[in-house]
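Worked problem 6 (solution included).
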Amino acid sequence: SQKTRSVRPPWVIATRSLRLVLVPLAAMPATTRGTAAAEGADRAITYRGKAGEPNQPLYVTNAIKTSKYEWHNFVPKNLLEQLHKFGNVYFLCISVVMYLGEKTPLYVGTIKAFSTLGLLIAMMSVTAAMALYDDLRRKAADADINGSAAYEEPTDSSGIRKQKTWDSVKVGDILVIRKDEEFPADIVPLYCSGDDGNCYVSTANLDGETNLKLKNAPELTQKLLQKDGGAEDKVIKNLSQLASLTVKAEAPSANIHDFNGSLELGASSESLGGKQLLMRGTMLRNTTFCLGLVVYTGADTRMVRNSRPSPMKQSNLEVITNGAMLIILAVQGSLAVVSAFCHTFIGESIAQHWYLFPQQIVLPEFIGWCLTFFTLYSNLMPISLYPTVEFCNAFQSYFISNDRNMMYAEKAFEKEPFFAKARSSNLCAELGQVGYIFSDKTGTLTQNDMELKRLSIGGKTFGSFDGTGAPVAGFSGKGDVMSARQDSEKKQDVNGFLEALAVSHTVMATKNAQGQLLYEAESPDEFALVSAAADLGWKFVERRGNELIVEHSEPAKAPSEPSKSPVKIQYKVLATNAFNSTRKRMSVVVEKKVGATPEYLLLVKGADNIMLDLAAEKASQSQRLLVEHLKEFSLQGLRTLVIGYKKLTQVEVNDFQKKYDDAQKLTRGRDDELAAVAADIEKNLLILGATAIEDKLQVGVGEAIEKVRNAGIKLWVLTGDKLETARNIGFSTKVLTPSMKIAIVDDEEGVMDLDKHDKDLKAVLKLEERAMMVTGKALSEILSVPGKKKKLLDIATQCSVLIACRVSPKQKAEMVALVRENVKGNPITLAIGDGANDVPMIQEAHVGVGIAGVEGRQAVNNSDFAIAQFRYLERLLFDHGRSNYRRACTFTLFTFWRNMVQVLMMVYYTGVSGFSGTALFEDWIRLSFNFLCTLPILAVGCFDKDVPLSVVLSNPKLYEVGRLNQDMDMKKTLRTVYSALAHSILVTSLAFLAFNSMDCHGAGDYYTFGTSAYTCLLIDVNAQALFRAYSYNIFTLGSVALSLVMYICWLIFYPMNPLVVNLLAPNMYMVPYHMVQNAAFWILVLAVGILVFVLDTSVFLVSRSIEQDPVDSVMSGPRYGDATKPLLPGGDIESDGSSVGPPAQGQMEIIFAKKTFSNNTFHPNKRLKRVRRGGGIAGVSLLAFGAVALLYSKEAAQVIVPYVENLETANWWESPWSWNAMGTKDSEIQHASCESSGMKCTATVTVPAAMDNPWIFYSIGPYYQSYSAYMRSELIPELYGKSVTEQQRSTFCVKETRVLVNEGVTEDIVPCGMKATSLFNDTFIIRDESNRDVYIDRNVAAWQSDISRYNNGPDYDARPHTSWLYERYPGIVTEKSVNIKTGAFVDWMRPSALPRVWNRYGSIGRPIKAKEQLTITIDSEYPMDRIPGGFKKLVITELNMMGGRHDGFGITLIVFGIACIIIAVVAW
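Solution. The predicted structure is:
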C-alpha cells in the first residue's frame, strides 16, 4: 500500500524548492548520476578560471527529474506498478484463464474474458490516467525548476554576470547570487558582502525553520577578493587571484546541519564546516550578494539527498482486506470444487439427454470443470474495491484538509491560516482505530513559546511562578536581580551568570527598517534567554563573523539617579561546541577583550544531569541548594538549564585550539572528534546557577487529553524534560490525575524494581488510575535486556498513561516499535510531535501526526497528517477518524456483501442449469454490476455520519467502535456472510416463484429471466446501501437514484438498440421491453425491495435486543442536537451560521457542500422506528401484491394433459420439475391415452371453467436449455440469413448438429447447432363437441422482434446437399417460404431459464365455455422417453395479467406480508 496523494498534490506547495523535499531519490535517472567514483567518494574541486576547460570528474548534472514516465515507457511501467496490487494480478490471471476457456478446448469457459478484462482495463485505465495527469504536472514543475535563471561569473571584461539555467550549472562553476535569490546548487561561499564575510540564509524551504541562519565565507578567499573594495564588479575582477584554489569536500551526504571540507589556496588552507555550505533551495537574505563555488549538483545536493520517501504504511483495514481476499479466494476455490463434484455426480444422467453434446476438453474432466466454476465465481473477489477505497479516501482527505474547525489563524503563527493536511489518504480510517498515542511535550502539548520565569544564582532564587497559567508576562524578578547586581557579594556571580546567557549562544542580531534590534534564534529557549539577559543589563547587540558584541549596563543605584551609559564588550568566539541529543549541552570558548590582556572563558549551558556531573565542586552547599531549586522549578513545570563557566589559561586555549582546528579539518568523523575535544575542556566547571523557562500549554490541551483517556486510548508522553518537570506538566495537562497510582522507574533514584511496580499497580483495580513514569537512562538499560523489556511492556500496558523522560529521538521510536510489535491485538499507534526529533517516532507509528509549530516543518513534512494545535487531534480522531473508520468498514463489508450475493445467486442457478457453468446473468448486463452497484455506496463512504461530534465528545466511549475494531471484527464479518446468504436465497427464490407467471407471457427465457433477476439484485444492493447508511442526504439518495437511472439507460442503450445489441449479444434484443410488460416483474421488483428492507430491519431488531449498540443507546436518549441545522461531511452540527473568517483559497467547494447538506440531511438512527413504520407499510403492501397475484392465479382456469411421463426413472434432484404449479386441482389434470408405439395420443377433456382468452402451452422436462454447451451452440449470422464460413460453423456447432448423413449422402444442416436441431416437433389438433377443428393461431407464439430479425438467406433452397428446417420438421414448419421465420422455431430458439420448458404453442381464437368437451389428438414425435424422468404435457389455460395458474407466488407474498405485520406489532 503506497502513500497516497493528499488533496493538494505534494509537489504543489508554496515555494518552488519545497516541492523537491518530497521527491524520491530513486526518481533521478541513472544517466544523470555520473561515475560511481565521483558520486560516492570525497571530491576535490579546482577553480577552472573564466575561460578554462572544466577539469572536474564527471559529476551529476543539476537537472532534477521527479517525473516517473517517458512517452515510450509509460504503458509498461505503469502497468508493472499496477500489477503490484493483488487484485489486479488476480483479475488479469482470471482473464487469461477465461480467454483460454473461451478460445481453446483446454476446458469449458462459460464466462467471456472481456467481461472481466474489460472491467479490469477500465479500472486500470482510470488509475493510469490519474498517474499520467500527476506525472505531467511533475514534468511541468521539473521544467519550471530546471529552467530557472542562475548567474555565473562573466566570461568577458564587461563585469556583468552571465545568465544560465539551473540544469546547466556544473560542479566547479562560480555563481553570483544576489539578495532574495535562491541557491541553485550546494555552494561553498568564496565571498559574502556582509560584515566579515557573513551572510544570512533562509532555510525554510529545506527544513521549515523560519529563523535566518548565519553563514560566512572562508577568511582566505574573503580577504583576497575584497582587497580592492566590496563592490560586486571589483570582487568579480579579483577572481583571477583564485587560480590555485582547490576545495576538498566530503562525499555527498544528507546531513543538512554539517559539512566537512577544506579550502586550499597556494600554501594556505582553511577548514570548512556547516557555516560554509549554502544549500540548494535556501535563499540569500539581508545580504547584497555573494560569490560561491558549486560543490554538489542535482541528486548530490543536500536537499535532494533528504528527499527520501516516507516509509510506506499499510492501513489496518488494508491488512484485514488482504486477508479477507485470501479467504475469499479459498472459498471461491471450494465452491468451484464442490460444483465440479456435482457436475461429475450428475454427469451420467446428463449424458442421457440426447440433445446435449458436451464439449470435449483437454484437461482431466474434474480439473477442467474446477476451472470452469472458478472463473464463473471469479466475481466473488471484488474488483471495484480498490478504486472505491481510493475514491472514498480522497474525499475523506479533502474533508480533513478543508475542515475550517481545524484551521489555525493566529497572526503570530503564519501569514496565511494553517489548515489541517491529510498527506496519506489511505490512513484516514486508521485515525478511528487508535489505541495508543505517543506524544512529544514541547511544542506539542505546549506552545513552544518560551519565557524566562525564575533564576537560581549563588544559592538564591529570583522571580516567581504560581503554575496556574495566570497571564503574568515576563520575568517578575528583575528588580531583585538588579539589586543583586549592586550587592558587592552577589554582583560577580550575577554578572557572570548574565554574561554567560548573553554570550553562550548562536543567536543572530539584526535590525528592522525602523532600526529596532531583532533576534533570530534557532530555538525558542535561546531566544528567551538572550532576550532576558538583554532586559537585565547584558544586551547582545551584534555578531560579526566570529566576533560578538555585548552592551553591559550597570543598574542605577537609585531610581532618581540617571542610568549609566552602556559599555560595549567585545568577544571573539574561538570555538562553538554545538548541542546535540548525546551531549545535551552547548558551550563557547571566547576571548574577552578587556584592557591590554585578553581573558579566556569557557561558557557552558546544558541539562542539569549532565552539568552537575561536570562541576568542580559536586558536594558544595551552593550546589545542594541549586539541586533543591532545580527540583522546585521542575515541580512547577518549568524547563531548566544549568549555567557554568571556566576560566582558561593561554596554554589551555592554545592546546584546545590546536585540537579543535585539527578536528575541523577532518572530512570524516569530524563530529565525533569535535565532541571529544569539547568533552576534554568541559570539565571542572564552576556552576553559576540555573534558568527556569515556562513553555506555555496550548489552548485546550487538558480537555483534549481528558477526552482521549475517556475514549480508552492510552497516552504515552515522550519528552526530553527531567522527571519532575514532566510530572508537573502531566498534572497540568490532565495526563496525570491526583487519584492515579504512579510507578516511577528511575535508576538514579534506585526504583528499578519492575516486579514491585507490577505488584503495586495490580493492586489498583481501575486501569484509569494507573500511570507510569520512566527515565531515558532506565529505559536504555531495560530495552537492552529482553526479559526486562517484556516486563516493562507488561507493566506499561496495565497503565492508561506512561511518561518517558529524558528520552532521545531514537528511544522515542523504540517505544513506538515496542508497542506496535509486541502488544497483543496489534493496536493502532499514533505518534504526534512538532520537531525534527519527533520524526523517527512519527515514521515508526501506524499514523504520524505533525504539528506545525515554531520548530520548523520537519515533523509536518514526514507526517501522515498535519495539524496546527494539539487540541485539533480531538476533532481529527473523534470526528474524522471515527466517521472515516465506520465509513470504510461500511463500504468494505458492503462491497464483499454485494459480490457474495451476486455469486451465490449464480451458484444456485448453476444447479438448475445442469452444473454446466452457465451464468445467471448475461455477460454485458453483468459487466455493469461493479459500476452500478458501487455508485450507491460511494456517497455512504464519503458522507455518512452516525452521530454528531458533540455526541461523541460527550460520550467518548463511542470511539471504542474503531479502537476495538468492532465494525470489522469476526462477528460483523459473519453477519455479513449470513446476510449475503439470506439475501441471495430470498432474491433467487422470489425470482423463481415469479418465473411461471413471466413464462406464460413469453418472458421466461434465459435472457429475460436473468435480466429480471439482475434487476432484483440491483434493487437489493441499492436498498442495502441505504440501510447501511446512518444519515441520508442529497448525495446518498442521489447516488441510489443515479444507479437506477443509469441502469435504465444501459437497458435502453444496449438491448433496445439494434446496432449495439447486434454487435454485443443479439439474443438480448428487446429483452427489457418484454420484461417490463409483465405485471409479475413489477410485483417481483417491489416485493424484493420491501422484503429486503424487512429482512434487514428484523435482523437488526433481533441483534439489538441481544446486544445493544452504544450509538443506538445514545441516539435513543434525549435529543442530541438541532436537526434543522446542517450536518456537515466530516463535521459537526454547526452552532450558528458564523464563519471563521473569510474562506481561504480552495475553500469554496466545501462551503458549497455545506449548503447542499443544510436542507437535505436527517438522522434515521433510531432504526426501531423504521421497523415500526416500515414493517406495517411493507406488510400491507405485500398482502396487497400477494392478494392480486393469488386472485389472478385462481381465476386462470386450466386443463393439463400429461401424455408422456417417465416419473419412475426420475432423479431426486430433477423430479420437482415435473410437479404441477401450486394450486393445480386434480380435476384439472386429465391424462391422454397413447398407442403402444407412443407416437399417437388422444384425450377427451372437460374444461372446468370458462376461458375468455385461452392459450395452448406445451411443457417438457427435465430439459436443460440453459446448459452452457446448448446455449452457445448457435450461429447468429446464419439465423439472420448472412453468409457464414465452414470455419464459423465448426466453431459454434458440433458435427452432430452440423452435418446430416441421409442415405449415404452428407448434407449440411441449416441452421446448425443444438438449439436448431432439437426443435420441439409434437403437434396438437383440437376438436370441439361438434368434431370441428378449433383454430390455433401459432403466429403469436414468438416475439415479433425476433421473427423480424430471422431470415432464410440469399441462397435459401438453392444450395445443394443442404438439410433445411422445413425438410426436417414438416409438422412445425408448414410453409416452405417461411422456413426459419416460423414462430414455433423462433420461440424455441429462446432457451428456457429453468429445466422445464413451458412454451406457447398458440392462441385459441375463441373463448371456451365451462364444461365444454374438447378432443385432443397429439402427434407425439419428440423423444422425451429417453430422458430420465422425462415428461410432456399439453396445457390449455386462461392467460391473464399474471399469466396462468401459479398460487405459490401470491401465497408466498401473503405469508411474508403477515410476517411483516407481526414484526411491526412486536416492534411497537
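Discussion: The two ends are 48 Å apart (CA to CA).
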